[in-house]
Design goal:
The complex is a heterodimer of chains A (367) and B (494).
Chain A (H helix, E strand, L loop, with lengths): L36 H18 L13 E6 L4 H13 L3 E6 L11 H10 L4 E6 L4 H8 L3 E7 L5 H14 L9 E5 L6 H12 L3 E5 L8 H7 L12 E3 L2 H5 L4 E4 L5 H4 L6 H8 L3 H4 L7 E3 L12 H4 L6 H25 L3 H7 L2 H4 L8
Parallel strand pairs in A: 1-2, 1-3, 3-4, 5-6, 5-8, 6-7, 8-9
Chain B lengths: L10 E3 L10 E11 L4 E10 L2 E7 L13 E5 L1 E6 L12 H10 L2 E6 L10 H14 L4 E4 L15 H7 L14 H13 L3 E5 L11 E2 L2 H6 L3 E2 L1 H21 L4 E5 L4 H12 L4 E5 L1 H5 L3 H4 L42 H13 L4 E2 L8 H4 L16 H10 L5 H8 L1 H8 L23 E11 L18 E11 L2 E5 L7
Parallel strand pairs in B: 2-5, 6-7, 7-8, 9-12, 10-11, 12-13, 13-14
Antiparallel strand pairs in B: 1-2, 2-3, 3-4, 5-15, 15-16, 16-17
Helix pairs in contact in B: 1-2, 4-6, 6-7, 7-10
The chains are: A alpha/beta (367), B alpha/beta (494).
The complex binds zinc ion.
Chain lengths: 367, 494
């Protein structure tokens, strides 16, 4: 392998003594729930390599030369789409961008038909954003290539969770989240970012706190208490609270989530003013966190609502780093997914090697 | 005609085709279940010229080797709640395919819901359904409810009196609740005057707006919008309050709550019945046997998902997720609930709160189901798998076989017998193994497992969560009103 043109041998070189050899074998990345901790570490190491690429004068490697990446966005999100497309182009992939609008009321061409069409047009890796939870699972059932979830409904946003994790590890001593307190404040109920972060941060051993008004936390307590005592292998408990001071106090990481105006029309919040006063991350609140704590936001921000402008631009804020790391993490995932395809010798073999939850999909379960 | 099966005894008959009178059928050494007399045991039956000529109970030596684990003979099943989609949605189901599916499931009488297009809100639509039933050649009896409101729009009453004259067995806006308490009160009074019930789909539409799955642990993790328990409980309390009110003016007012799914709403009905309100309810096979964890990919029976302390087990902690998540065949309204709610449905069935099991057979096309979970139509194509699901409950020793059969036969008939205008009609007749009556029965092999496939389902609706799975209790023969409704293709002479 030519080091000048390829990222360093990812998952093929022997790691340090503490990292075990692990190969990527997921055909799709739909959420982080089925990704094991060694696999997450592989993603982190691959992201390091991609950061190396991005630091070069020419930020481009031919790793995915001739491979076709299609972004299919059913929900407008310029920043996420551009991040994926930049990542794909940095790997020299051919990028096709499809933006479409849909809602449960106006049914246009079905998702299934759209994906069959894109496959016939040569799509190999499909990056998908959709407003309905679970939509990428339907796509993965019918698509012959790889599906990379760019966010589905309230359910999952795995690349965001992984870039968040990467960014946290960069800033925490030793890159280790075990025992570190992470507070996520905002609209947890409707947040795919929060849900994916629950999987990855509990797997990382973080002391995770989810915080928001009771109307936007509904149901999360059941999830938190179900995991009390770490009932799920590799996953510990997390905390759910409406007490923002308790959540932020002594935190190593404080993350604000976007609050949408629709939440007031839905009767879930009295006003944005009241939200900002009670839950917004202002300087006073953030001062409760550890002195070296970092402040994060998945964007786009409503400055003055969930985060005060001076906090967003303070030295603690790593929000622009999140954006830069997002490109590197997405490059890593595109690279790993494309490699899984090659290493396993095509779709059929890749299909057999997938994780238990994917492998469990017997033909009869395909509807 | 003769039946072959792994455990079956010798059987002989002539070989009619569907719709023809069964001239001669004999079955020796089977397990007979007669929910009218309450008797079950080894026996033999003979059908001659469409009449159940003899029912012989065997004892001693003759009965040896005959158990309730093999071939079972029961009265034909009666489904109080099915959707046959005609007129208007014939690509999802027709009266003919619905009747064929029913017969394959062991059903000989089915009551159709009126959410067709146009809605069954005037007698002309009922006539179309009846002529489709006649043209199908199937002997399965197709009954129908009329809509409560014109065009099911929840604004004004349908042609209730004319529909009664034409022969509907009650009124329902199923698919949705009767929109307002005020309209429900009028409907209960007017239907009561006609001696007919209002059949309610209990749902508070404001609490369930845009809901995708039962509000709870599974929906929280999957990021699905929650359909809260309160959405059903609130509607049931409204309906019971309005019924109590209507009864003061019209003592013949009757309310039937269909497909109840939560512990709390069944408790409300239990108390209302104890207080003497003329209310009945039913539960479905899927709410008895499945739970919301199936949407996450679990594939175990609801009772296998209960912990020793009676609480729901965690499918993630159990590593019980073995199938792909978000399978739209599991999107149903009311939604699949927790294993605890499923246990409450069973408890209600056992204590008589909900005496009947109905299928809520809701066939849909691939176009309506092969979509994103939250955009998929609600419903399970279930009339062909209901028996198999109940047999799974029987096999788990949680439901006696005779109670399962009663829930499919005498219990729905008894509910209909409580509706004044229908008390003396055929629909309310006791469904037993009665000598001298037209043969109306099902023969199934409890031990014979069959694989549910798209091809094996006679329904046009392939939206079954059991596709690819095995169920026990293969139906071998269904005779409706003395005529052949279904015969297992594996049977027949060599
Ligand atoms: Zn209904």
């Amino acid at each position: 392998m030519n080091v000048e043109t390829e990222p360093a041998a990812v998952g093929r070189t022997a790691g340090s003594a503490r990292t075990q050899e692990v190969a990527w074998h997921h055909r799709h990345l739909l959420d982080v729930d089925v990704v094991t901790w060694p696999e997450i570490e592989l993603i982190m190491r691959t992201t390091d390599e991609m950061k190396g690429v991005l630091a070069r004068p020419i930020r481009k490697v031919p790793a995915l030369n001739g491979r076709r990446v299609t972004t299919l966005f059913y929900e407008a999100s310029t920043r996420t789409r551009v991040s994926f497309e930049t990542a794909a182009r940095n790997l020299s992939a051919d990028v096709v961008s499809v933006a479409t609008a849909t809602s449960s009321v106006t049914k246009g061409e079905s998702l299934v038909d759209t994906i069959r069409t894109l496959e016939a047009l040569g799509a190999e890796i499909l990056v998908m954003r959709h407003s309905v939870s679970g939509a990428p699972y339907l796509a993965a059932e019918i698509f012959g290539g790889h599906v990379l979830n760019g966010g589905d409904g309230w359910h999952a946003h795995p690349t965001q969770a992984l870039l968040d994790l990467y960014t946290m590890r960069q800033h925490l001593a030793g890159g280790d989240l075990r025992g570190r307190k992470v507070a996520i404040v905002g609209d947890i109920l409707h947040s795919r970012v929060a849900r994916s972060n629950i999987w990855s941060l509990t797997a990382a051993g973080a002391d995770l706190w989810l915080c928001g008004p009771a109307t936007l936390l509904r149901g999360m307590d059941r999830w938190a208490t179900a995991w009390d005592g770490g009932a799920i292998p590799g996953h510990g408990r997390f905390h759910v609270t409406s007490d923002v001071d308790a959540a932020v106090r002594d935190a190593d990481v404080v993350m604000a989530l976007r609050i949408q105006r629709e939440r007031m029309q839905g009767g879930l919040l009295p006003s944005l003013r009241e939200y900002a006063a009670r839950f917004g991350l202002n300087a006073e609140r953030v001062s409760l966190a550890k002195p070296e704590a970092i402040v994060m936001h998945p964007g786009p921000m409503n400055e003055g609502i969930e985060i005060a402008p001076d906090v967003a631009t303070s030295g603690r804020a790593v929000i622009t780093e999140q954006v830069a790391n997002g490109v590197a993490v997405r490059m890593a995932l595109l690279y790993l997914l494309a490699g899984a395809h090659e290493a396993a010798g095509g779709h059929e073999a890749a299909h057999e090697a997938v994780h238990v939850r994917e492998a469990a999909r017997a033909p009869e379960a395909i509807r | 005609m003769s039946l072959q099966s792994k455990t079956a005894s010798r059987t002989t008959a002539l070989g009619p085709s569907v719709g023809e009178v069964v001239e001669r059928f004999e079955l020796e050494k089977a397990w007979l279940v007669d929910p009218v007399s309450g008797r079950e045991g080894p026996g033999e039956i003979v059908v001659t010229d469409g009449v159940l000529e003899s029912v012989v109970w065997l004892e001693g030596e003759e009965a040896s080797g005959v158990t309730d684990k093999g071939v079972v003979v029961a009265p034909g099943f009666f489904d109080l709640h099915a959707h046959f989609r005609e007129p208007g949605f014939e690509d999802a189901e027709t009266v003919a395919t619905g009747a064929a599916a029913a017969a394959h499931g062991g059903y000989t009488t089915v009551a159709m819901m009126p959410n067709t297009s146009p809605a069954l809100d005037e007698p002309g639509v009922l006539e179309r359904i009846r002529s489709a039933a006649r043209a199908s050649g199937s002997p399965v009896e197709v009954l129908a409810y009329g809509a409560v409101s014109a065009d099911r729009a929840g604004e004004q009453l349908s042609a209730m009196g004319e529909l009664a004259d034409a022969g509907v067995i009650g009124y329902s806006d199923d698919g949705a609740p009767v929109r307002t308490a005020k309209l429900l009160r009028s409907a209960l009074l007017y239907a009561g005057m006609l001696g007919l019930p209002v059949v309610e789909h209990a749902e508070d539409l404001e609490l369930t707006a845009s809901a995708e799955a039962n509000e709870g642990y599974v929906a929280s993790i999957l990021g699905l919008a929650g359909w809260p328990t309160a959405g059903e409980v609130n509607a049931v309390s409204r309906d019971l309050a309005v019924l109590a009110d209507a009864l003061r003016d019209e003592p013949r007012a009757r309310l039937h709550l269909t497909h109840l799914s939560t512990t709390a709403s069944l408790d409300l009905v239990r108390r209302a019945k104890a207080a003497g309100l003329p209310v009945t309810c039913d539960v479905t096979p899927h709410h008895l046997a499945l739970a919301d964890e199936w949407i996450a990919g679990a594939r175990r029976w609801s009772w296998e998902a209960l912990g020793p302390d009676g609480t729901s087990r965690d499918p993630w902690a159990d590593e019980a997720l073995t199938a792909w998540p978000y399978d739209t065949s599991l999107r149903v309204n009311p939604p699949l609930r927790t294993p605890v709610d499923a246990a409450a449905c069973l408890a209600a069935l056992l204590d008589g709160t909900a005496s009947a099991v109905v299928t809520d057979h809701a066939p849909h096309t691939v176009v309506d189901k092969e979509v994103e979970f939250g955009m998929a139509s609600n419903g399970i194509s279930g009339i062909e798998t209901a028996l198999g699901v109940l047999i799974a409950l029987v096999d788990s020793c949680r439901l006696p076989l005779a109670r399962a059969i009663a829930a499919l036969t005498t219990a729905p008939a008894a509910i209909v017998a409580g509706w004044p205008a229908l008390a003396a009609t055929a629909a309310a007749r006791k469904r037993g193994l009665t000598e001298g009556a037209p043969a109306d029965l099902v023969v199934f092999d409890r031990a014979d497992r069959w694989t549910v496939t798209e091809e094996s389902l006679r329904s046009k609706g392939k939206n079954s969560p059991f596709i690819g799975r095995e169920l026990s209790g293969r139906v071998l023969l269904t005779i409706a009103g003395g005529r052949l409704a279904y015969e297992d293709p594996k049977g027949g002479d060599e």
